[in-house]
Amino acid sequence: MKILVVNGPNLNLLGLREPELYGNRTYADLERHVRETAGRLGVEVEVRQTNHEGVIVDWIQQSRGEFAAVVLNAAAYTHTSVAILDAIKAVKARVVEVHLTDPSTREGFRRVSYVGMAAERTFAGFGFDSYTKAMEYLAEG
After folding, report:
1. For residues 91 and 86, what is the distance between their CA atoms, to the nearest angstrom?
2. SS3 letters for the chain?
3. Exposure class string for 70-97: b at 16+ Cβ within 10 A, else e
4. Which of 5, 7, 52, 112 has its Cα between 20 and 30 A from that of 124?
5. Which burial class, exposed, middle or buried, applies to 5 when counting CB atoms under 10 A from its CB (0-12, 13-18, 19+)?
6. Whether 99 is catalytic
């Protein structure tokens, strides 16, 4: 199984950005965590990050036929991007939504998830373990 992990805007600033919410671990730490989890599960993983909505759309479209599933942390685009929702629906990708924090406990605008409208499952509020749970879920079938 080959999984594409897509991280959206500002995740490259982990460790600097709002450490009271996201902690002090860096984006490099997150990548390492994802790769170690993949190794433990015996799956292949490719990890990508972008601050650009259209790039996320492109990667979702390109995932078809190349990846069995996508683990997607669309970050702020979760709450705004109909384009990402449409891309998920168009390619009928297996997508699992993840978030480091739990958006339902934050500002009201974060309670709407366009990604969640098409995602197979969501894991939120577990920090880096949101990715672990998503990958374990996908590896189980």
Report:
1. 9
2. CEEEEEECCCHHHCCCCCHHHHCCCCHHHHHHHHHHHHHHHCCEEEEEECCCHHHHHHHHHHHCCCCCEEEEECHHHHHCCHHHHHHHHHHCCCEEEEECCCHHHCCHHHHCCCHHHCCCEEEECCCCHHHHHHHHHHHCC
3. bbbbbbebbbebeebbebbeebebbbbb
4. 52
5. buried
6. yes
Residuewise pLDDT in 10s, the chain (141 residues): 999 999 999 999 999 887 777 778 999 999 999 999 999 999 999 999 999 999 999 999 999 999 999 999 999 999 999 999 999 999 988 999 999 988 887 777 777 899 999 999 999 999 999 999 999 999 998
Which strand ranges, in their side-by-side order, compose the sheet holding 69-73? 44-49, 2-7, 69-73, 95-99, 121-124
**Given the residues 27, 77, 79, 99, the one annotated as active site:** 99
Domain coordinates in residue numbering, the chain: 2-139
pTM of the predicted protein model: 0.93
